[in-house]
Amino acid sequence: MPLKNAHKFTVPHLQVLSEKGTLDKKLDPGLSETQLLRLYRAMTLAREADQRMLRLQRQGRMGTFSPSTGQEAAACGPMLALSERDWLVPAFRELGAMLMRGVPLHRILLFWGGWEEGNVFPGVERTLPIAVIVASQIPHAAGVAYSLKYRGEKDAAVVCYFGDGATSEGDFHEGMNFAAVWKAPVVFICQNNHWAISTPQEKQTGSKTFAQKAIAYGIPGIQVDGNDPLAMYKATRDALDRANNGEGPTMIEALTYRVSMHTTADDPSKYRDTAEVEVWKSRDPLIRLRNLLNERGLWGEEKEAALLAEIKGEIDAEVRIYEHGIEARSDIAFDHVFASPGVELEEQRAAFLESRGGGSTNA
Amino acid sequence: MVQGINLALHEEMQRDPKVLVMGQDVGVNEGVFRVTAGLHAKFGETRVIDTPLAESGILGTAVGMALAGLRPVAEMQFSGFSYLALGHLEGHCSRYRARTHGALSVPLVLRMPYGGGVRALEHHSESREAMFAHLPGIKVVIPSGPRNARALMTAAIQDPDTVVFMEPKHSYRAFREDVPEEPELMDIGKAHVVQEGSELTVITWGAMLRKTLEAVSEVQAKREASVEVIDLLSISPMDTKTIAKSVRKTGRCVVVQEAPRSFGTASEVIARINDTALMYLEAPVGRVASFDIVTPYFAREQNYFPGVEDIRRGMIKTLDY
Ligand SMILES: Cc1ncc(C[n+]2csc(CCOP(=O)(O)OP(=O)(O)O)c2C)c(N)n1
Ligand SMILES: [Mg+2]
Of all helices (H) and strands (E), which one includes residue B212? Predict the structure, then answer.
């Protein structure tokens, strides 16, 4: 008997605005001027904040952190499609997404400065904190999505970020599978920045693309030019529409690049070629969007200078809050182990205070 | 200590072609702490494997290799991520020998940096040695310096069973120590009496040893006190004999651990003293430990680990009882 085809699949690749600045009219999501300007501002803020954090870390004013320079389109493009009803479930390299969500920069600085206060976002709903355990947030996202379905919140979905390396963890498999079986309203965004610390794609997976992994779960997978903010927006918009229509999850692979180090404790010259980095630097997502704004007469040198000055002021103010704004009791770690500490922990708190002389520490 | 472990890995890979090293970023990048420096260049990528990012996969495949006669040394990049591999540790490493009445066994080493005090992110500061030690069929060892790190690693690789090798990362580059030309083989399960004394026994391990020695010399500078210090080195099996001998002699004991106070290794040490030396005690055995809390992020972390002052106070309390 001749072999029949059990199943066929394709993995589409989406690009809307090319590196050279050509816009695909058919695919153009038709963002308004306001939306385009908001997106550009968000990406610029993410870039400038990232650079400032690098300096703060080098000056010993902040801890180790994972820079996201070069990945601003992949982080910010999708966020333009989110409503306040949607959930954001981040990994740890989505600074731009967190800022667009309304998380104040000083909270993010607090996180990387070693304070739990950096996981508390007053007034910002439906946003989980940074996930340090790689891929652990993926099943959480599926669970959150199930809860939306459970409550009949048809206008809401979950956007969950993770890296290329995360796809190797069991949690990726399990989270994707649950989401698919439950037809849960969730958009998985894999930021394929080509490296997981020193591990390149070919040591991470035998798959040609990360997007195709989705297909095995019965989830549509799409590869997107992750340095094209319009494509990232469009892919997320479409995926959210599917989710809201009850069609279940989608996985987006954002092809981008970690132009900086893995974390400030990492030395990428040990394992990768600077030539590769230079190629990707020339594909800067900020320049791509700026060129489009220029072309449409929405931007110019003066506006750029004004924006940078404004953003610098904003970052300065946030850094000041970070460095002086938080005062916390030294024994705060006893407060939140359980809803109420109980006798033993209170005894230990008393012993702690006695031995440490009480008092408070300043951020 | 980084160099001590590294030296043992070089020597063992040289000695035995069955030994191989695997983990995230251990090859080309030589490990995030450079513990595997030079191995990839010397032994190549089939013996020094940069694995995909999957802890359960790393230990699971290492189990398979060990069952088939290899001697893998698998790394968890940080102990905080090793819990993703616990299924294989409890489900297979600990029991393959028993399951098959000795026909099959899992001789592998599971290495992991652990412990606090290096201003790292969440999940990078815990000391959960007791969790692993609670599994029958698993050995758990913790070096405290370059020389015993090398000797323990050599022993762990040659051991016929699974050894969890926990590396106190606070001590990674804390001090220098000469190591002998020839490899040493440490007896897993033996504690080391670091200094002899007759009035108080202080038992500790890992990064707490340096702090303990500091506290001991402070106490001894201020008052006549003869203190014996024991470096446990092996959490499981535990050297009850050395502990008992010492406590029977001194009649007083303090156990110092970096881990939270309850349900830990200190509790086990105290239980063994209870079994073997209760009638010799002149004071309740003291415990200096961290608190039963979730390790705070690093801005506050240091505050919560036992410091030299805590250890000093614990010793005085037991001495004055
Ligand atoms: C479960 C787990 N294992 C290991 C680590 C250490 N670690 C932190 S980030 C990272 C690489 C992540 O790569 P990827 O998912 O591609 O994200 P990227 O860092 O490139 O954004 C590793 C191995 C971790 N945080 N969690
Ligand atoms: Mg990556």
Answer: helix B208-222
* Omega of the bond leading into B237 within 30 degrees of 0 (cis): yes
User: pLDDT digit string (tens) for B243-276?
Assistant: 999 999 999 999 999 999 999 999 999 999 999 9
Query: Is B293 within 8 Å of A337 when comparing Cβ atoms?
Result: yes
- Is the pLDDT at A361 greater than 50, yes or no? no
**How many A/B residue pairs have CB atoms within 8 Å?**
109
Q: Which among A56, A108, A111, A133 is the top mutation candidate for probing chain B, defined by the most B β-carbons within 10 Å of its own β-carbon?
A: A133
Give the residue carrying structure tokens 């000093």: B312
ipTM, 2 decimals? 0.96
Q: Which one of B49, B55, B295, B297 would you mutate to disrupt binding with A, by most A Cβ within 10 Å of its Cβ? A: B297
B229 and B118 assigned to the same domain: no
DSSP per residue over A166-186, as a string?
GGGSHHHHHHHHHHHHTT--E
Ligand 1 in reach of A195 Cβ (< 6 A) = yes
Name the CATH superfamily for A13-324: Thiamin diphosphate (ThDP)-binding fold, Pyr/PP domains (3.40.50.970)
Query: Average pLDDT over chain B, rounded to whole?
Result: 97
Question: DSSP secondary structure string, A5-17?
Answer: PS------EE-SB
Q: What is the pLDDT of residues B15-45, one digit of tens each?
A: 999 999 999 999 999 999 999 999 999 999 9
pTM of the full structure: 0.97
> Which residues from chain B sit within 8 angstroms of residue A361, using beta carbons?
299-300, 303
Q: Is the pLDDT of residue A346 over 70?
A: yes
For chain A, the structural domain boundaries read 13-324, 329-363
Q: Quick one: pLDDT band at residue B303, thresholds 50, 70, 90?
A: confident
Q: What is the pLDDT of residue A363?
A: 33
When pLDDT is averaged across residues A19-45 and rounded to a whole number, the result is 97
Q: Which residues surround the ion ligand 2 when the cut-off is CB under 5 Å? A: A 163-164, 193, 196
Number of domains chain B is built from:
2
* b/e code B186-208 from CB counts within 10 Å (16+ = b): bebbebbebeebebbbbbbbbbb
Nearest CA to ligand 1 atom 6: B77
Query: Residues with Cβ < 8 Å from B306, sequence gap 6 or more?
Result: B208, B211, B256, B257, B258, B288, B289, B290
